[in-house]
User: Fold this.
Amino acid sequence: MIDDPPAKKVSYSVIDHYPYQIFHNDLNAIETVFGGRVLEIADRLAGIVAQDHSNLICVTLLVDSIRFLAPARRGETLVFKASVNRVWGSSMEIGIKVFAGNLLTCKSRHVFSAYFTFVAVDADGKSTKIQQAIPETEAQKRRYKEADIRRINRLRVAQEIKDSRL
Ligand SMILES: CC(C)(COP(=O)(O)OP(=O)(O)OC[C@H]1O[C@@H](n2cnc3c(N)ncnc32)[C@H](O)[C@@H]1OP(=O)(O)O)[C@@H](O)C(=O)NCCC(=O)NCCS
Assistant:
């Protein structure tokens, strides 16, 4: 029998401050940041957190609760934060938050949030078990608890849709 890999702390893989300066080619027709750009960076960072935590190849299964809370503009700097909220079997939830601000004034505002569900896969692309993530801070413990509520909802909705097609 193979032992489960040892659990790792959430803080091991956390990305606390990933800055990205907004340039002209990041803007949409109304001169605010194109949402797809934010999503792409968020997906890359969530993947890094997933792989750093698990030491396995991880793929994006689903993204939900995507919220663009406020526009970000040319010249501002986006700061991405990413951490593993909870691990189940082969899947885990990575939470992403983005703040937009001005480096000169140090003022920033929350502009984006989303949850990425990643699955660890083996060499054949089959889902494989991940070590647990240990939350330590109050915020990490809250996210850990809430992540389970979100997962139950995701599975319930998927099942309800499946059943409705029978
Ligand atoms: C991700 C993938 C390997 C999962 O395959 P699968 O046959 O569904 O695998 P499983 O049935 O073993 O499920 C894998 C995990 O996803 C979870 N899952 C499946 N559907 C889910 C849903 N709707 N909501 C939440 N979790 C879900 C399962 O519960 C399981 O997690 P667990 O082991 O923690 O319980 C497969 O769907 C895939 O390869 N998708 C493409 C990924 C991709 O190309 N991403 C973009 C580029 S990275």
Summary: The two ends are 39 Å apart (CA to CA). The first helix runs from residue 10 to 13.
